[in-house]
């Protein structure tokens, strides 16, 4: 009888339609988050390791033990072209789990980046490689390879639940998780929101005030807002 989900590698995960992933990749994190009903964000302490990093792809999930990066090497075997790695930890840890050598290994497998609720290092090399990384910390502290975690089990990273095959999108505004079965619908909703915002954007360029575009004057007056000429 298994008492926890440690020491498990699930080798056959479902991934969403690649065309839906490609459509979703056209939108920013803020747009996707709003289109889903303002849900799905990781905590804002997850930041790009270098300027310009961004990613979008189905998640291969990794559950790490603090101070131990063994499971990244196990996960590399499970990566397919276009995937991203999403790594959580059994408890908070900011050790430098990931660096240039692991990025080289994952790049050879077609991996498109990493989101980790932990630390990374070799940032200058990661930028040169154009391997996008979003992390909790930048930390040179090394790790060992001694304790089992798991691959392709549900993980919690920065307060967000990520299941294998969910699509993770990350840019300068943060990281959002889209459930695998909703990727197409969220791409549709994001496009609708983007079209709506472009119409508003043009009106703002034309000088229309948000007070009038959003019909704010009446509710502001009802709330007691007064204009006073001194």
UniProtKB/TrEMBL annotation:
Binding site for substrate: 99-102, 121
BP term (GO), one: carboxylic acid catabolic process
Enzyme type, top EC level: lyase
Reaction equations catalysed: oxaloacetate + H(+) = pyruvate + CO2; 4-hydroxy-4-methyl-2-oxoglutarate = 2 pyruvate
Keyword Oxidoreductase belongs to the record: no
Enzyme Commission number(s): 4.1.1.112, 4.1.3.17
Residues binding Mg(2+), per UniProt: 122
Record-linked CDD domains: RraA_family
Domain of life the protein comes from: Bacteria
GO molecular function, one term: oxaloacetate decarboxylase activity
Keywords: Lyase, Magnesium, Metal-binding
Listed cofactors: a divalent metal cation; Mg(2+)
InterPro entries, per database record: LigK_PcmE (IPR014165), RraA/RraA-like (IPR005493), RraA/RraA-like_sf (IPR036704)
Gene3D superfamilies in alphabetical order: Ribonuclease E inhibitor RraA/RraA-like
Subunit-structure text: Homohexamer. Homotrimer.
Known function: Catalyzes the aldol cleavage of 4-hydroxy-4-methyl-2-oxoglutarate (HMG) into 2 molecules of pyruvate. Also contains a secondary oxaloacetate (OAA) decarboxylase activity due to the common pyruvate enolate transition state formed following C-C bond cleavage in the retro-aldol and decarboxylation reactions.
Family (UniProt): Belongs to the class II aldolase/RraA-like family.
PANTHER family: 4-HYDROXY-4-METHYL-2-OXOGLUTARATE ALDOLASE 3-RELATED, BLR3842 PROTEIN
Protein name: Putative 4-hydroxy-4-methyl-2-oxoglutarate aldolase
Organism the protein comes from: Microbacterium aerolatum
